[in-house]
């Protein structure tokens, strides 16, 4: 039950994660390599959770 809730929430909030990442890059908080690394980590967590 909990895993189903997490999956649903992750699906709903994925676009928000991408938007925040873009904002951090535009403000110079993170550079391109740091962004790519964090996105890959988030995608790994997402795929592990959704599968």
State the order of secondary-structure elements, H for helix, E for strand: HH
Q: Please provide the count of β strands.
A: 0
**Can you tell me the number of structural domains?**
1
- Average the pLDDT over all residues and give the rounded result: 78
Q: What is the number of helical segments per DSSP (H or I, 4+ residues)?
A: 2
Quaternary arrangement of the chains shown?
A: single chain
Largest sheet: none
Structural class, from helix and strand content?
mainly alpha
Low-pLDDT windows of residues? none
| Separation of the first and last Cα atoms | 14 Å
Radius of gyration: 12 Å
What does this structure look like?
It is a single chain. By secondary structure, the protein is mainly α. The chain has one domain. Helices cover 86% and strands 0% of the residues. The chain contains two helices and no strands. The protein has helices at 2-26, 32-50. The two termini are 14 Å apart. The mean pLDDT is 78.
